[in-house]
Structures
1.
Amino acid sequence: MPVVQKLRCQVEKIVDYGEHVYTVELRPERPAPKFFPGQFLHLALDEYDPSGFWPESRVFSIASSPAQRDRLRISYSVRGRFTARMEKEMRQGVWVWVKLPYGEFVIPDQNDVVLFAGGTGITAFTSFLDGLTPQFRHRVYLAYGARRRNLLIYRDLVQEKSRAVPQFRVLFFIEEVPGGGPPPGGAESGEERIGSVSVESIWAELQNPGRAVYYLSGPPLMLKAISQDLGRRGVAPGAIQVDAWE
Amino acid sequence: MDPSIALRTQILERVRQYAREKFARRAFDPAKDLVHYAGRVFDEEELYSLVDASLDFFLTANRYVERFETEFASLLGLSNALLVNSGSSANLVALTSLTSPKLGDRQLKPGDEVITVAAAFPTTVAPIVQNRLVPVFVDVNLGDYTAIPERLEEAMGPRTRAILMAHTLGVPFDLDKAAGLAEKHGLWLVEDNCDALGSRYRDRLTGTFGHLATFSFYPAHHITMGEGGCVVTDDETLSRVARSVRDWGRDCYCTGGENNTCGKRYGQQFGTLPQGYDHKYVYSHIGYNLKVTDMQAAIGCAQLGKLESFTARRKANFQRLMDILKPYEDRLLLPRATPGSDPSWFGLVITVRENAGFGRNELTRFLEANRIETRNLFSGNLLRHPAFEGIPHRVVGDLKNTDRIMNQTFFIGVYPGIEQAHLEYMARVFARFMGGERVS
C-alpha cells in the first residue's frame, strides 16, 4: 500500500444523474499520491486539523485514472446518513478532505477477468478500464447493470473501451424499462439485457470459466446472488474477489 | 482567535531562541573537546519540529510520520516507506516479512538459507537467526569491506532463498552481482542500507535495488530522529506484510486513532474466527510493536531537508582525511569505493597493514588518548561472538579477511560535525603517532 496521504480538496464539479446518484470531481491542493486502479479513498466533510484525529469519513472507489493525479473522481448514490450529508453539503467550491490510497481490489494481468458491476459499484473498475489497452494479455468481460439506463453512468467509457480493446466484452443490464417493453437503442441494444446482472447471461460467453478470476462490486444483494451462483458453478472461493464495504 | 494558537506561536518562537542560545556553535578546543566518530548535527529547525509535534500531543504516528514517509519514499522513488523505531527493527521487520504465508511459494521457511557476511553489525544477521533461517557467510574484501562478489555465486545452495547484506559504512556492495544473482535464482534481495543513506550505485540511490531495504536514523547515522528506522519497498504485498509485522502482526492497517479504514471492519472472514470478527483484532502474522512516535518523525522531517548538505560534507571530510592519511599508506590500508559506486561515507575505515610495525589497538589507543574517537568495524567477525558461536550456519570458503578486520581494522569519523579545525587536529595527531609517539 503506497504511503497514505491526507489531502484537502476542492469540489470542482458535480454531475447529478437524478435519482440521488452523483459523480464528484475533486481538485486536491497538491497532487494525489500514486494509487492503483481499484483502490479507494476516504472522504470527510468536516474540517480536519492535521494535528488531531481524522473526522468521520466514508470510503469510495477512486473512479479516475491513476495517470491523472491532479484530479480525483468518485461516484455515489445516497444510501445513508453520510451520503445524505454529501448530497446536501457538497457544492462546487466546497472544501473536503480525503485520505488515500487504500485497498487491494486490484486486477492483475494474470488470468481472464470477469467483472460484475451494479450501479455505482462500477467505480471499482473504471480506473482499471480507463487504463485497459489491447496490450492486456487476457480477456476481460464486464456485466454492468443499473436500475435504469440513465444510471449506467460510465456507459460511455465502457463502450469506448469496448471499441478500442478487442479482448474486452461487455453486457449492459437495465432492471427497469419505462413502459415495460424492450429497450430502445438500435444496434447497441444487442449488448443490453433487461433484468439484473447475472452470471447466467455471461457464462456462455466465457472461454474458460474455470481459469478466470471474478470481481464483484455493487449492492449487497447483487454481490450475494452472484457469489452464490458462481459457487454453484464450481468457481473456487479464491477466484471470487468481492469489493464489499459496510 | 483561539488563544492556543497565539500561545503556540510564542512557544515555538521561544524554542527557536532557546535552540540558538543553548546549542550555539563554539570553536573546537583540541585540549578539551572530543573528535566524535559520529553524532547528531542539528539546529533550531529540529527543536522547532520536535516541540511542534509535542504540542499536538498526538504522540503516536500522525502528520509528521505521514510527511516523513511520503518525502522519504519520494526521495527514493519508491511507493512505500514504513517508519519503525530503529534500523535493527527495520531489519527484523524486513526479514520477518519474507516469512509471511501471504508470499505463497516464495515464503521463507525454517532452514532456508540467507547469504550474508560476518563482518557485520549483529542486527543485520540476528533476524536471520531469529526467524530460524540459516545464514550463509561469505568473506569480504579488505578496502571496501563488502562481500567478495565471486563468493556470492559460490554460496548458492539448494535451499538458498535470500541475500541480506549491508552497504558497509556507506560503501555499496556489488549490486550488479547481487541483484543479478537474485533475479537468476529467484532470491529475495534485502539491502541493509542503515549506514548508507545517500550512497549511489551506478547513479542510483542504494536502498532502491532490493525487494526491501532498511535504514537507520540513530544519532550516529546520516540523518537522525533519535531512535528510528525505516523499511522501504516498491512491492505492495511486502508493504502490507511489513506493516502487519511492525504493528503487532494485525491484519488491520488503521493507524492510531483510526477506525474502519478498510471499510469492512465487521464484514470479513479470517481463519476459523466468527464471520465479521472485528478486523482491528485479527492477526495474520506473529508480529511486534516497532512503531515510532510523531515526535521522532518530526525531527526526521527537519533532518531530511539537510540530507543533501550532510552528504556533501561527509564526502568532503572523507576526501580531506584521505589526503591527510595518504602519506601513511605503506602502513595503513585506506578505504576504497566499489566499482560503480559513489559512497556517502559513514566513516573512514582503516586496516593496519601486517608489516606496519604497530597493531590496530596501539593506534586506536593513541587516538582515543588524544580524544579522537574510534570504532571497530562493528563485530569484526560475528561468528566469534558468544551469542553467535553456536548458531546453525554455513561458511563459504574461509573468512580470512573477516578475521583480519576483527584484528586490524577500525574507523574514524567523517560526519558533518567534523570541521576544518577537527581535521587539522587529526592530521597532527596522526603525524605524531606515525612519527613514533605512543601512549605510555
2.
Amino acid sequence: MNCLEFRRQLGADPQSAKADFLRHRQECAGCAEAHARATGFETTLRRAFEIPAPAQLAESILFAQAKREQRQRQLYRRSAVLALAASIVLAFGIGMRVRAEPLTSMAVDHLREEAATLTLTKPVAAQSVREAFATRGITLVDVPEGVSFVGCCPMGHHLTVHLVMRDNNQPITVIYVIDQRDEARADFQREGWRGRSVPLGSGTLILLAQDGTRFDEVEKTWRAAIGPASGSARS
Amino acid sequence: MSSKQRQFDALVRSLSGDLFRYAYWLCGDEALAHDLVQETFLRAWRALDDLREIAAAKAWLITILRREHARLYERKMPQFADVDEIEIAEERGTQLPEFTGEEGLIRNAMLRLEPKYREPLLMQVLGGFSCEEIARELGITPAAVMTQVFRARQKLKVMLTGDDKGSQVHELS
C-alpha cells in the first residue's frame, strides 16, 4: 500500500484493521501522523454523535408494547365472542329455516327425490302397509286399496310413511307425516303438482298428484284407515 | 413473563439508546426520532421470531428503522414553511446545550450534511457497520460507500474549519 492508497483508506475508514493499512502506518511516519490526527477527529465525531437519549425511553417503549399487546388480546377476545355469537345466530337462523319450511314444500321435494316410486304399478299387500304404519307406532283401522308403494321415509327431520296409490293408472302420492299436525286442511299447488294437506290423527296427511279430482275420495279412505287418533308416534 | 418478552425487554433496554441516536441523525428531530424508535420496536416485537442471531439484532433493528423512516416520508405530504420560521427553528436547535462547544459545532455540521453522505457515515461511526454491510443495506457498491464516507468526513472538516484547503481530498477510484 502506498501513501495515496493509505490516505484514501484513512478518509473512508480510519478504524480499518486491514493488514496492509496497519503495516503502512508503521512504516511511514507522515501517514502515522495523519492517522493520529484522523483518530482524534474520529473520537470527537463519535462523541458528537452520542446525543443523550430521552430519559425513560426504554420504559416508554415497553409500556407502548404492553398496551398494544393488551389491546390485541382484547381484540382477539372480542373477535372470538363475536364469531361465537355469529355462529349461534347462524345456527339459530338455519334451525328456524328448517322449522319454518312448510310440510307441503318438503313433501314435493321428497316426491321429486323419489320420483321412481310413481312408476311402480304392482299392488302392495295390505299387510305390508299395516307393518309400515306399525313401524311408526300407528295401528291402521283399515287398509285402503290400490297401494303400489309403501316405505318409511325420513322427510327432512320428520318421520313419515310414504305411499303411492294408483287410480285409473294415475299415481297419487300419499305422505303421512307422523310427528307434525298442521293447523288446517288446505289445498295447494306447487311446482306443477296439486296437493292437499289434511290434519289427521296426531299427524298430517299430504296428497300429491298431477290432478286433484280424486283427493276427496282418497282423503276419505285414509280418514277411515287412520282414525281420529291412531296410537302414538314412534321413531 | 414469556421468553419472547424477556428477549424483547433486553433488546429494548440495551439498544433503544443507540437506535434513538441513529433515528435522530436520520431525521434531525427528537420527537420524531422517539416515535421512529418506538414504532421500530413495535414492529420488531411482531417479527421477533425472524431474528435468528441475537448478535445481528442491532443491524436488524436499524434495517427496520430505516424502512420505517422511509415509510414516514412516503406518507408525509410536502410541507411549505416560511423561510423565517426555518431560521428560528435552526436557532432554537443550536441554542440547546448539545449544540454548543466543539461537539455542538460538529452536530450542527452533521445536520447540514446531505443525507446521502450523512447516512453511511452514521452507519459506520454509530452503527459500527463495515463498508460491505453498509453497501448491502443501502443497495450500493462498497466502493461507492467508501467514496461517500470519505467525502462526508471531508465535508464535515470543511464545514468546521471553513477552509477546504485545510483538508486534502483524495478522490477514490
3.
Amino acid sequence: MKILTGNDLGSGDVVWWTGSGWSRHVEDAVDVADHGEAIASEEEGARRVNVPYVIDGTPTPEGPRPAHIKDRIRALGPTVRADLTLKPADPAAGSWVI
Amino acid sequence: MADAFRYRDDAVHEEPAVTLEAFLAQTDASAVRLESGDDARALIPALDRLQLVEIAFPTFRDGRGYSAASILREAGYAGELRAQGDVLVDQIPLMRRCGFDSFAPEAPVDDEVLARSLARYDDVYQTTVDAAVPVWKLRHG
Amino acid sequence: MYRYDQYDQAIVDARVDEFRDQVQRRLSGALSEDQFKPLRLMNGLYLQLHAYMLRVAVPYGTLDSRQMRMLGHIARKYDRGYGHFTTRQNIQYNWIKLEQAPDILAELATVEMHAIQTSGNCIRNISSDQFAGAAADEVTDPRPWAELIRQWSTFHPEFSYLPRKFKIAVIAADEDRAAMRLHDIGIQLVERDGAVGARVFVGGGMGRTPMIASEIAEFVPVDELLSYLEACLRVYNRHGRRDNIYKARIKILVNDLGADEYRRQVAEEHAAVKALGIDPPAAELERIAAMFAAPALDASAPTDLDRSDPDFALWLDGNVAAHKVAGHAIATISLKPVGGIPGDASADQIDLMADLAERYSHDELRVTHSQNIVLPHVRIADLHAIWTALHGAGLGEANLDLISDIIACPGLDYCSLANARSIPVAQKIAQRFGDLGRQRELGELKLKISGCINACGHHHAGHIGILGVDRKGVENYQLLLGGSGAEDVSLAKITGPGFDEDGIVDAVEKVTDVYLARREGAERFVDTYRRLGMEPFKEALYG
C-alpha cells in the first residue's frame, strides 16, 4: 500500500493522511494508491501539511506498517525513550518499530 | 519577471549588458553581465568605462555574487551594480551591504517586508563596502 | 566571560524580530518551505524526525549559571524536559514547535543567548578548548579570539550563502582538546617574539571524505587575523564547489588546489583586502580579553582530600584534572551514564549543574565537544561536595575518556538524515563494558558513533569508530580503528564488512581483547593499534 505522510506546519508533529485530513496516528493512514502526489500537492499548497511524501507500507491488523524503519520511528517516537512515544505504556510498541 | 528597482538617482543605463567575454573584447561596451562563475577581477582594468554590472543569481543559494560585488566596490567601481535572478527579499539587505544598488528579481518582492528588513538592524559587526560603521569602531572611535 | 554591550544586545534583539517576521510569513504562506529553509537554518531550526529541532549556540562552549538555567527553563516550557549537548558545544532541543520558536529566541536573548548560525551554509559556532582559562599549558585564553571571530562572522553579508557549512575552532595549547585539526579552519594561538599570533590550518573536516587541515599560515598577528580569515573565506566562497553537496566543503577545495596554491590565493586576496579597515584595533581584543580575566582564585586553598569513599576516589582519578592555580581543579561532569543517552541532560540535571557552577566554579560552565560539561574553577576542598551532588543526580559517572564515555550523534531515533540508530548501540556497548574496573583496565579509549556519513558523531576521529549504514533497509554498523581528534590527529580506518547491532558490540569486545593481549608498557588502545596495524584486529574479527 502507499501511505502519505508529512509534518504539521506549525507544530512539526508527524502526520498521516486519513483520506479526509491529517492524523498524528499511523493507524488512521489510508492507502492513497497512485493519488499520493496529487493529494500532497494540494494539501501542501493549502498549508495543511509541510513537506509531505509518499511511502510504502503493509496493511496489518494493528494498522498500516511503514516499510522503512525511519518512518516507523516517525510514527511512534524515539526507540530509546518509550516515555516520549505515542504509546508509552505499550510493551509491544518497541518491537513494532524494529 | 518582477519589477526591477534601484537605489540610485542617476538615469537607468540603456545599453544592454553583454557577457564578460564580449565586454573584454569590445572596447566601447559599458554594461556587462557576470554569471555566477565569472571572475569579477577581470573587470578591474576597465572600471572607468563601466556603468552597469549585472550579477547573476541563478539560484538564491549560490552566494558567489556577494563576493563579486564586494570585489568590484573595493576596487573603486561606482556605477550601477545589479543583482538579477533568484533574489529573495530576505537577501536584499545583505546584498546592499555588499554593494548592490539595483535589483532585478525574478519573483515579485513585497515592498513592506523589504522596507522592514532594510530598517531592522541599526548595527553591524563587520566592515564591508557599504558606509555602515562597524560596532568595533563605535566602541573605540 | 563575554558580556553583551548595547550593540550586541541590539543585534540579537533585531534578529529575534526578524525571525518572528520570517516565521509569520512562513505560516501565512508568503514564504514557501524551500525559501524558508535557509532562513530557519540560519537560526538553528531544523525539521527533524519527530518535530522541529532547535540548536542553541553556546559560543566556544562557555556559559554561566543564569544561562544554564535558561536552557533548563526552555527544556521544561517548550520541549519535553531535557536537552542534548552536541559535538560542537551547543545544545539541541528535539520537540520544538515552529509557532513557539520566536518566543524561545526572545527568552534566550534576555540572557545573552541565541541560535544564530548554528546551521546553514554559513560560519557556525566558533568552538574552543573546554579547559580554556584553567589549563596550565595554554599560551593565552583562546576565547577572546574566538569571540572576536564570532562577531566578525555574525551576519557577515558576503559569507551567508557559502557552498556549505563552515566550522572554526580556536585553541591555544599544543594539546588539542577541541579537535582543531578536523575543522574547516583551525587556529592554534602561539607565541613568537613575545607576541601571540595565530597558526592557521584550513581544510579539515569529517563527513564523507574526512581530511586533516593543512597549515596555511604559520603566524598571523591579531591585527591581521580577521582580514586573513576574510581572504580564506572569500577564496572558498568564490571557488568552492557548488555542483555536489558532498564535494562542497573547503577541504575539497584545499585538497584539489593543493595547500600551496590555496595559500597563494589567500595571500593574494589578503593583500587586496588588508587595507580596507576590516581589522579592529588592538583595543577591541583587549576590551574582550578583559572580560575573560581569571577569577580571583586563592592559590593557598587547601589541597588535602578525604579519599576514603572508593566511588569518590574513582571519580577524582577519572574526571578531575589539574588546574593552573594551586588548590584548585577542573572537574568534568559525565553526561554518559552507563545505559543512558550520551549528551542528554534533564531540566533538573541542568539546574543542578547551574547551581554547582554558581556555588563552586565562579559561576562558569563549559560544554565539551565530547558532550560532557566542565566546571573549570573548583576548589579541591569542594570536590567531595560537588561529587556527592552529582552522584545523587546521575551525573557522577567516573568514565571520562574511558570506553563508556561515548560520543554519539542522535542517530535514527531523532535525525532525518540518519541511516541507523546510534544511541542503542552506545547503550549496549556501555553496558557490556559497564564495570568501571574493566574500563579503567582498558584505559583511555575514545569511542565515537555516527548514524550516517555526515559524521556528527566524529567516528573518523575515534580510537574506535562506528558508522551506522542502511544495508537494504536493515541497520548495519561498520567498525573503524585508529582515529584521533587530539594533537596526534589521524583518521580511522575501516576494518572490513559491517555487523548487525549485536555483532558490533561483540566486535568492539574482540578488538579490545586484542589490545589487552598485545599491549606493551603504557600503550593506549590507539597506540597498540598504531604499532601493530590492522591485521591482528582483522584476524580477531573475521577469523
